[in-house]
Amino acid sequence: RKIAAWYSMVGDKLYKRGFASPMLLCVGEREARRIMEETHEGSCGSHIGARSLVGKILRAGFFWPNVYDDTPDMSEAAINANVTLTYITPLASP
Q1: What Å distances lie between residue 65 and 16, 56, 88, CA to CA?
Q2: pTM value?
Q3: Is 90 exposed, middle or buried (0-12, 13-18, 19+ CB in 10 A)?
């Protein structure tokens, strides 16, 4: 009951009332993945870290139950995908 008080239906959409934010639109798993990718990599994305990514998503007005758990995975996967190893060959002193 206490948890249900934080949610409300407006038309056919479910919203979560934030503590210090407006109502956040609850989205499904597929839409959540799209939002994460667009926020992290999109035209206005900056490949930010997990904490900043969550904040940006919430400020945009979206929510899903695992938002805090999913975003670190997204950031870590992006970091691992962009890592390239470069070996530097030391130059011999004359």
Answers
A1: 10, 16, 45
A2: 0.61
A3: exposed
Pick the CATH number of 4-79 from 1.40.20.10, 3.40.50.620, 1.10.340.70, 1.20.1290.10: 1.10.340.70
**Band of the pLDDT at 92, cuts 50, 70, 90?**
low
| Residue 3 Cα to chain centre, angstroms | 23
Q: Give a three-class secondary structure readout of the chain.
A: CCCHHHEEEECCEEEEECCCCCEEEECCHHHHHHHHHHHHHCCCCCCCCHHHHHHHHHHCCEECCCHHHHHHHHHHHHHHHHCCCCCCCCCCCC
